[in-house]
TrEMBL record:
Naturally occurring in which organism (per UniProt): Nicator chloris
Pfam families: Acetyltransf_1
EC top class, as a word: transferase
Functional summary from the UniProt entry: Catalyzes the synthesis of N-acetylaspartate acid (NAA) from L-aspartate and acetyl-CoA. Promotes dopamine uptake by regulating TNF-alpha expression. Attenuates methamphetamine-induced inhibition of dopamine uptake.
Protein name in UniProt: N-acetylaspartate synthetase
EC number per UniProt: 2.3.1.17
């Protein structure tokens, strides 16, 4: 189509490279803003956000003296749920069962604290993350298209080159 409109072979060849570059730029920009927001909110004071509030907790997976994974749980007394948050495993240690062990720790915590269900939301693109949640017993309950991560400006260019799907999962532990 580009060649038909411009009659330029060079422009036709350069356009995909330009579009991929724009996608990379906006993806990187959004992710860095998101990380900056996370590092200046709950992750800046883990004790305040996850250790002090009742019904919340934070775990760290350590292997050979190195932190290889983290996960948090944040209780919501209004609907008697606990939210699994901030699950992350160092890329060098993925596929070794660490994420599953962290997930089970949150489920154990929820059961010990008499929560009726565990919920989570993820923007993970990798199917392995979704398979992990399902292997822990979570059911996929919905998708929010064009989700705005914290730090996103939602500018026209950002929306053109970077879109996020937000998947919601729920594991019912007992009747409410």
């Amino acid at each position: 189509m580009c060649f038909v409109v411009t009659k330029s072979f060079l422009l036709t060849c350069c356009l995909p490279i330009f579009l991929m570059g724009m996608r990379y730029y906006f993806s990187r920009k959004v992710i860095l803003h998101y990380l900056d927001c996370a590092l200046h909110t709950d992750m800046s004071d883990i004790e305040q956000y996850y250790m002090k509030p009742p019904g919340s907790c934070f775990w760290v997976a350590v292997l050979d003296g190195n932190v290889v994974g983290i996960v948090a749980a944040r209780g919501n007394e209004e609907d008697n749920t606990v939210e699994l948050r901030r699950m992350s495993v160092d890329s060098n240690y993925r596929g070794k069962g660490i994420a599953k062990a962290l997930g089970r720790k949150v489920l154990e915590f929820a059961m010990l604290n008499n929560y009726s269900s565990v919920v989570l939301g993820t923007t993970a693109v990798k199917m392995a993350a979704h398979k992990l949640y399902e292997s822990l017993g979570f059911k996929h309950v919905g998708v929010v298209e064009h989700y705005a991560l914290p730090g996103m400006t939602r500018s026209l260019l950002e929306r053109m080159f970077f879109q996020v799907r937000y998947h919601r999962y729920r594991l019912q532990l007992r009747e409410k």
